């Protein structure tokens, strides 16, 4: 998978100074807990003692999956296009949360199996009308997979040119938890059962059917170990675009806000392409989807929230963003002991 992307590891030159700045705020040491770690991490990403969040943005990538034909979702494939219409009309959860927290929101048609009308908030990057059914064929050709990755990179580059330095990626695609489960299984060697969850709300019988179908797909394609093969065979256009988006955002030194299971599966693919990517990532939440918990553990990630979400759409990002903003604000605006003329803790003689 030849990608013209160079990601530099985050510089640690300001780590001591950032920690000292946090420790000098008018509070007991460590009393803001994970928020303190968050502030330091954002300062390191931006290589600044006074980081700023500029034009925070969520891109929702939407695409359809041929595997939906095998009955692995509780909803029909048509719901993908219908939900894109709901996003554009402002009626979805992500619209409410993004508006509440002043996050810019755009929808990307990566591969929806519908003809979508033009809309100011819709970005048309459709590669095809959905992937092939990976029960019988690779989901994507290598060329189409590469085109999707490059499209994701270009979209993030444009956001950066427009002044955005803090970005997150959501998704919409009926049956995309099936793709995500196989990506996680193949790239981590975790048992398939740990990677497959209820997705859109499957009951026990439907969950067992989903697991059986995904095992059949694995048996059909045989052992895959190259990351480009795994993504092309089992991925989706929206997942491949997110892979490119992650890589470009890290290359540009942006703060990356990571959402739920499908978003983390895409991140796992990108991480296999460049390990330094994780330096730029803030994990918004852990969902109730079994595979999400597995991949977070594999990446040694510490999410900000545990609200038992399993919606997707970037909803976890929007809900966690106020914490990210609070971390930057306290680092920049909270008084130090010296500024407030408050006595510090007495040290032992």
Q: What does the model show?
A:
It is a single chain. The protein is α/β, with parallel strands linked by helices and 349 residues long. It has helices at residues 15-23, 34-46, 78-89, 93-100, 142-161, 176-188, 192-195, 204-221, 227-234, 237-251, 261-273, 290-298, 315-333, 337-340; strands at 57-63, 104-111, 122-124, 166-172, 255-258, 281-283. The N and C termini lie far apart (60 Å). The relative contact order is 0.18. The model has no long low-confidence stretch (mean pLDDT 96).
Multimerization state: single chain
Average pLDDT, rounded to a whole number, is: 96
- Tell me the total number of β-strands: 6
Give me the number of helical elements. 14
- The second-level CATH architecture is 3-Layer(aba) Sandwich
How many separate structural domains? 1
Task: Compose a concise summary of this entry.
The protein has 14 helices and 6 strands. It has 349 residues and is of the alpha/beta class. It has a 6-stranded parallel beta sheet, with helices on both faces.
List the helices and strands and how they pair.
Layout: H1 15-23, H2 34-46, E1 57-63, H3 78-89, H4 93-100, E2 104-111, E3 122-124, H5 142-161, E4 166-172, H6 176-188, H7 192-195, H8 204-221, H9 227-234, H10 237-251, E5 255-258, H11 261-273, E6 281-283, H12 290-298, H13 315-333, H14 337-340
Parallel strand pairs: 1-2, 1-4, 2-3, 4-5, 5-6
